[in-house]
Amino acid sequence: MLTLYMINTCDTCRKARKALDEKALLYKTHDLRKDGLSAALLEHILNRVPLVDVMNKRSKTWRELSDDEKNYDANSARQLLLTYPTLLKRPLLERDDGTILIGYREGDYDKLG
Predict the structure, then answer these.
(1) Rg (CA), the chain
(2) Within 10 Å of residue 81's Cβ, how many Cβ atoms?
(3) Rounded to the nearest 5°, which phi and psi values hold at 108?
(4) Does the annotation count 13 as an active-site position?
(5) Which among 4, 10, 20, 81 is annotated as catalytic?
(6) How far apart, in whole angstroms, are the C-alpha atoms of residue 43 and residue 53?
(7) Tens of pLDDT along 56-113?
(8) Domain boundaries defined on the chain
(9) How far apart are CA 111 and CA 40, in angstroms?
(10) Contact (CB, 8 A) for 8 and 35
(11) What is this structure's pTM?
(12) Are 103 and 19 in contact (CB under 8 A)?
């Protein structure tokens, strides 16, 4: 089953959900605000996609970080993501084979199912 890591209030996440619904694909959601981002889940994601690809530097949260926080290494980046789950690019769609698709643009899910 597909897993969509998202935030309910995110417009792009809503579009991704709509695309999955229109394709009648079975999926479960994991709301990063409501359900949280544990260290284990973060490592699960980072074992599949590079850290640099999942850090959302366009987010409001990123803009509010101090310059010291923005100058991160792998360990401090993990801590930032655990502290501020909204720094994780979203949506993330984990496929049955374990691969994770980052973000959503119209047509991204056309080959699923």
Answers:
(1) 14
(2) 23
(3) -60, -30
(4) no
(5) 10
(6) 14
(7) 999 999 999 999 999 999 999 999 999 999 999 999 999 999 999 999 999 999 988 7
(8) 2-102
(9) 29
(10) no
(11) 0.92
(12) no
